[in-house]
Amino acid sequence: MSTNRLLEIENLNTTFHIHVGQVQAVRGISLHVDHGEAVGIVGESGSGKSVSMLSLMRLLPDYAHISADRIYFEGQDLTNASVDQVRRLSGDRIGMVFQDPMTSLNPLMTIGRQMQETLRVHRKMSKADAAERVRELLRLVDIPDPDSRQKQYPHELSGGMRQRVMIGMAIASNPSLVIADEPTTALDVTIQAQILALLKGLMDKIGTSVILITHDLGVIAGMCSRVLVMYGGCIVEEGLSREIFYNPRHPYTWGLLRSVPRKEGEHAPLIPIHGTPPDLINPPPGCPFEPRCPHAMRICRTGMPRMTQVSDTHRLRCYLMDEGAPKVAWEGGRA
Amino acid sequence: MTAQPLIRAERVSMQFVIGASILNARKRVLTAVDQVSLDIHRGETFGLVGESGCGKTTLGRLLLRLYKPTSGTIHYDGHDITTLTPQQMMPFRRRMQMIFQDPYASLDPRMTVSTIIAEPLRRTEMDRAQVDARVRELLSLVGLDENHARRYPHEFSGGQRQRIGIARALAAGPEFIVCDEPISALDVSIQAQVVNMLEELQQRLGLTYLFVSHDLSMVRHISHRVGVMYLGHMVEMAPVNELFTNMAHPYTQALMSAVPIADPDASAASRRIILEGDVPNPMNPPSGCPFRTRCPVVMPVCAEVKPELKDIGGGHWVACHRV
Amino acid sequence: MQAPPNAAAYEFIPEAERKAAEQLSRPSLSYWQDAWRRLKRDRLAMVGLTFVVLMGLLAIFGPMFSPYAYDYSDFSAISQGPSAKHWFGTDALGRDLFVRILYGARISLAIGLVSALVNMIIGVIYGGTAGFIGGRTDNIMMRIVDILIALPSLLYIVILMMFMGSNIRSILIALCISSWVGTARITRSQVVSLKQQEYVLSARLAGASSWEILIRHLLPNSMGPVIVSVTFLIPSAIFSEAFLSFLGIGIQKPMASWGSLANDAIETLRSAPYQMFFPVAAISLTMFSLNFIGDGLRDALDPRLRK
Fold it and tell me: Model-level pTM?
């Protein structure tokens, strides 16, 4: 059964087998991405947001066991694809941008050479063509004076510049999907604004879809049309951006929105979420958020809640959605 | 009656010498803090914002006399502490403390929590039993279990380690605490816990804070007065509400507009001022106003004359030729 | 299909029950305990450790149980191969080789351990001070180290021995002052990198003196790589001693060290090869074992590999 969605993942699980036990980093998540859309995955440490994308791209070490019911990308069935097959897509049809460009860029090679390498490996371009394309890419990412920049080494560039180079490398072969994992977390806020504006502009210019992974709700609000909220290896709520920010239904989402100073001019008290992020080694059965949830019920300890649809686009995993459950309202909402 | 400020810094500068060695006699000077003046009053939280390289961390350390300023003076509670020797600083050390940014590097990994927290008490006359009691008291003050005293830092999460750091800072009963980016390394849901705790402690213990951060929303939430720094200079300073509603300096405006808002409609409606280019190299700062290379409303005079902080009323000071 | 849950399932869990949940689950391990646990999993290191411990025990207690004194010559049993009476055979003067090897173990192991320890102390103090003071002093101190490293240590050990004579005391002294430079470098680089850590700043704010910071914070945290390097100093010292004794400059007769036993065995190499075999085997196996231990320690003490 083919699909005209860009990316479709069903029931992805990733478990790390280390000596103290098994770390269930990703527990049965399903998601999809359409052509030309920006999807945000928001979560904190231990939520599995980064691991899930690394699993998709098979960029995890040997002791990670990955399984899924279905993985479709551009109509191709990748569910049982080999690591090599998947890695060939990376850099070609899927571009990746990571948080710290210092570690993803080879410090011993000039920027120009690294960018050319990607092109020559994937597109078998000649040296001259690759050099021209690199110039073009540097212009696309607003790096002035591309000819002399090409000859510079990563450490000679500022953080913002390096990230632009990473983005340039990611879009080098006009991929249909760019996965950006905390691309601006390490950058100053004014530089972050530049980079996000750049990403948005590129989405329009070359029509690529973006999966943006971050812990920053503000970044999500500014960039993404759809949002997935992850906690403890599961997707606990997903929906359109407006639905998540103005009509959230999951207590974790409420907690996140309440613990961040949201509206300008308000000195509303911050209401934190008590407790600490979960330890994913041999997690207890039940909803992963239960230990910290202010509305935890007995049933929440019995097993993982199933997905409930609130609208065509909005669904969540929570026992509060059950018929027999008490009605709990969200005070910070808006129509 | 205006009480004397607890901290008064007057035209404080800090210059670091970079690159001198036996073979290379040519020294280069990095001016991390350039002629900054500020007052912090008892019981208030002074928020210090700016991006990397602006000198806010250095300024915080200067106020604690971890460095000796190259020029200018620092007064603590009326005493001039600018040039005191480490010996002479001893009586002040008890009164001023710091909370660090990195919860993973600010605790000695080889020591137990109890030893870490008790470190500031080593110079006091307290005996073993008193120290233990104080450690337990501090642990419960920051919301940690007393049984955690014998454990090691690596067993705790980032938020918990930060609390240990706070307990340590409070051990000797200080009046003034410099909080150097205390929440940037923490998860969002934990940040609120720590900020709330800091506020509560301020109420209970009458603490004075210098809250250094690049997170404008948190600074706005917790501060009474705010200072904005750029490339070692203080460019704007005002009470918090005044600053955020009547931003006068172009950098503050750009900074504010760059902060992502967790609200899709507000985000779409907001006017973004996107600054061009990167922050200049602090070792080679621009002539005149340090912000002129990126300023959207720059004028010719900005390259010639460095603007001084001007009082524009209501406790609001700005360093800009446009104002 | 399950029956729908009853009303009780939807009751909120009371606060008290939930507080209990925030316990720390894993047992508390200090740095050393964790390192030991990791070391135990390295099989080669464990084999090496067992061998060294056995050798040490034999060296201390073995000769007490042997019917032969190390210098007792039985001229009726010259250069006999290994047998039930003499496990390792006898040497050219009829002395039991097994007991001589054990004596040799005493000397070689003692020299190895003591010189490694003294080198470590000198190196740690020198390097720690240089790293901590920094600036010009550090520069000068480290340049001295650079010069010393460039000199072949064997050369000045030999020169020292020629002045002090060939005996166990002079070997010990010479070895004790010849290898501290490596440890100094390692300690210094550790201290320099750790100096910038925030917990050091915090200690300064707490009023700790420079000395206290060095002793309580910097040196304990630098110990990992230092211990690893010291573990490698032991086999290197054993080898140096063996080499000197083999050349005839070291331990003199009738005292036995492994090197001098090997020296004794040169003349009878063709006719009684076993006399050379055992001392050499002892040296090699001990050095192997110590190297395995060192490798294991390096992994066990690396904080980054901690899970």
Answer: 0.84
